[in-house]
């Protein structure tokens, strides 16, 4: 009897193993000679450039650490809990790039996360979002990439350890648990603009890749979609109704932020988010940015939640204006803030002045941790990123960890109604340690 049970278990295991291999294994697609640029229409290339900008291809496929690399040649370092992963070369180089990939091979990579040689791609490449992109957009993107300059450059080797680096089993199992391939399907309960925004946001723009927390295996938590996550030491804030700012992200605020990098009532895009509006979404059709804003205004229930915005703005102005009017309290933290920050972050009227970001309304002060406040202090904001080309210098050298902690504590207690942050000096030191080198404009 025991022998029969053991034999049955072994048999089931063998069948399961064969079934898993049938699911995870893909054949190679034969290489092709590099297509001539003239084989693609000008319209396809033009449309493909819009898709590339919408998906921020150059951002993750261009090396920025150490010696910056050529655009789209890969070698961008992504530090993950599973090791460092370096992005692939997606120029039409035939040895290290995708020059010998057919359109079918390229579509399979986008739709299923499978390389031309049949190997499983790591989900650092967001194929779980790109699977929703239409065949037409993928075909146009292929035309655009295949007409870029070929760069003969090999990316660095990944440092993913054994056994995770066995892609057939490791990534195949990951996909079995977390990946559902398929193109975006319109939701009939919503209008065309909402569906266009959802298609872009959930697919090519892959917003959830940064704004949705991940589980221990690196997959997005579908039970917490758009609840926010930590990215490269910054907090990508929630894009839903859990966003803690006192003024709601309305459709207009979202559009201004995504198109121009500045939302009048929320501040400027900085850190990993900075290139999204400034380098990419500013180059796609304006109606598409409106569609994305329309979609996220619905996701965050802006229409239902914005009734209290004017009262929140009035409270914020009272919080800000009290610092420089009337008798000054004997508060050393307030004096430190006024000396370092007050000249630019002071508003005394009924509404914030464009060019004077009102910190009482800013996401950075209302998040659970001071990450973004510290990162902005350390990095600064360039003239290309700031409101009306107004820059903020880096205080990497100008403020100590103790100074940063004092300013953070002061702002949290005077500009919000939330409990104080903890371990502020330790967290300031940790934020400083993440910078490989001081910013070039660090104040002295």
Automatic annotation (TrEMBL):
Gene3D superfamilies, alphabetized: Cytochrome c-like domain
Among InterPro entries, the record links this protein to: Cyt_c-like_dom, Cyt_c-like_dom_sf, Cytochrome_c-type_DH, Membr-bd_ADH_cyt_c
Query: Where does the protein end up?
Result: Cell membrane
Q: Which UniProt keywords apply?
A: Cell membrane, Heme, Iron, Membrane, Metal-binding, Repeat, Signal
Q: Name one Pfam family in it.
A: Cytochrome_CBB3
Chief location bin:
membrane
What superkingdom does the record give?
Bacteria
Domain Cytochrome c positions:
43-149, 192-300, 328-415
Q: What is this protein called?
A: Cytochrome c
- Tell me the organism: Gluconobacter potus
């Amino acid at each position: 009897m025991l022998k029969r049970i053991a034999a049955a278990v072994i048999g089931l295991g063998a069948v399961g193993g064969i079934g898993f291999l049938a699911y995870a294994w893909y054949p190679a697609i034969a290489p092709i000679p590099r297509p001539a640029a003239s084989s693609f229409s000008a319209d396809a290339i033009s449309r493909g450039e819009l898709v590339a900008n919408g998906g921020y291809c150059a951002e993750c496929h261009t090396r920025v650490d150490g010696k910056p690399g050529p655009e789209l040649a890969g070698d961008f370092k992504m530090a993950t809990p599973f090791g460092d992963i370096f992005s692939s070369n997606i120029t039409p180089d035939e040895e290290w790039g995708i020059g010998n990939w057919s359109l079918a091979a390229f579509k399979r990579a986008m739709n299923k996360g499978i390389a031309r040689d049949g190997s499983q791609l790591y989900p650092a490449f967001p194929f779980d979002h790109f699977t929703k992109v239409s065949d037409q957009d993928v075909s146009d993107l292929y035309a655009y990439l295949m007409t870029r300059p070929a760069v003969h450059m090999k990316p660095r080797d990944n440092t993913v350890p054994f056994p995770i680096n066995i892609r057939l089993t490791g990534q195949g199992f990951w996909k079995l648990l977390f990946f559902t391939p398929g193109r975006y399907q319109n939701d009939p309960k919503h209008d065309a603009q909402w569906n266009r925004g959802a298609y872009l946001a959930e697919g090519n723009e892959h917003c959830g890749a940064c704004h949705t927390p991940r589980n221990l295996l690196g997959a997005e938590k579908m039970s917490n979609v758009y609840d926010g996550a930590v990215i490269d030491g910054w907090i990508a804030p929630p894009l839903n109704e859990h966003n803690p700012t006192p003024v709601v992200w309305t459709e207009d605020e979202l559009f201004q932020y995504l198109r121009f990098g500045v939302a009048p009532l929320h501040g400027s895009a900085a850190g990993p988010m900075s290139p999204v509006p400034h380098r990419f979404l500013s180059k796609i059709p304006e109606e598409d940015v409106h569609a994305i804003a329309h979609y996220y205004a619905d996701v965050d229930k802006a229409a239902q939640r914005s009734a209290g915005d004017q009262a929140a703005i009035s409270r914020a102005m009272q919080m800000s204006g009290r610092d420089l009017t009337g008798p000054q309290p004997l508060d050393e933290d307030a004096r430190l803030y006024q000396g370092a920050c007050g000249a630019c972050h002071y508003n005394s009227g009924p509404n914030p002045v464009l060019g004077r970001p009102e910190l009482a309304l800013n996401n950075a002060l209302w998040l659970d941790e001071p990450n973004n406040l510290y990162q902005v202090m350390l990095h600064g904001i360039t003239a290309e990123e700031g409101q009306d080309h107004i820059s903020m210098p880096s205080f990497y050298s100008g403020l100590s960890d103790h100074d940063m902690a004092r300013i953070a504590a002061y702002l949290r207690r005077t500009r919000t109604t939330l409990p104080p942050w903890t371990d502020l000096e330790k967290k300031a030191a940790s934020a400083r340690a993440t910078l490989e080198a001081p910013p070039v404009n660090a104040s002295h």
